[in-house]
Amino acid sequence: MAKRINIFDTTLRDGEQTPGVSLTPEEKVEIALLLDELGVDVLEAGFPAASAGERKAVSRIAKEGLKAEVCALARALKQEIDLALKCEVDSVHTFISTSEVQMKYALGKTPEEVVQMAVESIEYIKDHGLICEFSPMDATRTELGFLKKICKAAEEAHADRINIPDTVGIMTPNKMRNLVQEVCSVVKVPISVHCHDDFGMAVANSLAGVEGGASQVHVTVNGLGERAGNAALEEVVMSLHVLYGMETGINTRLLYRVSQLVRQLTGVPVQPNKAIVGENAFAHESGIHTKGVVISPATFEPIDPELVGRKRKIIAGKKAGRHGIKAELEEFGLKPTSEQLNLIVSKVKELGDKGKMVTDADLLAIARSIMGKVAEEEKVIDLTDLAVVTGIKVIPTASVKIKLNGKEYVAAETGVGPVDAAVKAIQKLTDKLVNVRLKEYRLEALTGGSDAVAEVVIKVEDKDGHIISSRAASEDIVMASVEAMINGINKALLRSRQRA
Ligand code: KIV
Ligand code: ZN
Q1: Most buried of 34, 129, 201, 357, CB within 10 angstroms?
Q2: How many CA atoms lie within 13 A of 396 on its CB side?
Q3: Closest ligand 1 atom to the C-alpha of 135?
Q4: What rounded mean pLDDT belongs to the chain?
Q5: Quick check: pTM over 0.85?
């Protein structure tokens, strides 16, 4: 049977120690409820000695009747343990510094005094009938002989679990595996690991701790936590399941939802390239990859995105291929011809070359505008030149040149802005040459930013009162407007020819 690893979640305690993060009791309860649904084994609800608000939050979480063991943190001090007990939690996680540097400068205690404080605290918690987890803080910088001594003392005092914190994140996987093996060689109580990410090693070190014999891992959602954070819950859990073939109680399909809730309530963004929950974790852009995943997802995906509550995303960009873009358009029910697809792909690549990320909305606008375009050979009128002048103290002016039946016509107009001037200039020409009028104009900026792709939707009316709609998309609003206009006029002329 696969080994079962306990997940000790400390998002609401160490995670809340993320600089700038402060959650209200209500927000903490909301996260706790979802973490419980997710299936964490232990939920460290907070540090009651920190504030009255923290005590309120911990007490409220303890009263929720969660499946998870609700735990509170306390230093190895009777008065702090009392505050935790008052919150009516299931367990107390008590800690004391054991490294030389912290005992001397942070605590001002001798090693003997530290052992005595640890033992008295554990006994005090156990006397109150609670589960006790003990942490020799800064264990990874603690002299090994002393670490073993305090762990043995903790076991004798009936601690239920001993946690090995890599408080300043200085371990490497090899060192962590060896250290946990060393501790496991002297105590029989379940061992836990708590790794910080100062060198980006928190997840790797936590997994190495499991290899060394740990049966519990401390984690936080999105890897939040003091300084560079803690081991990320989603990464540890998925690695245990997929790479180690181990089990946890986590319903992995809720991982993304939990990550999003924590992101929202803490206000700490998730980096796009973050494993499992980052926006790009299941996004494919390069042509080779998109073609591969469309044919068989296993080609470039280590896991099915649905396993963690995600969806595969094919991103259109300069590295996008025909296959990926075609598949994405098909998802929206669009089936461009091969020629139209070529035009869509080259427009997307052109935008990508300008450094723009093409969103779904952009891609759809581009595709709809290309697919709705009158074919080159059918065009009655063609735009051959466009120039606009605008600025402070300058009346916006546009001049356009069009080709109709092999002849070129030029007109210039002023307007309230460059779009108005350009549309009026086209209208001036077409009024004389063909009887088509602009009836409606709508501009939509699809994505934020000054380089957003703008989609212009227009309606034109031909001489018999028929209304024809047309659209065009471009990062240049004037171009999109003029293209939509010319396209609409062409459509109207073609229709009246077909009717004649
Ligand atoms: O990082 C740490 O050492 C801690 C302790 C309280 C266990 O968070
Ligand atoms: Zn910590």
Answers
A1: 201
A2: 12
A3: 7
A4: 91
A5: no
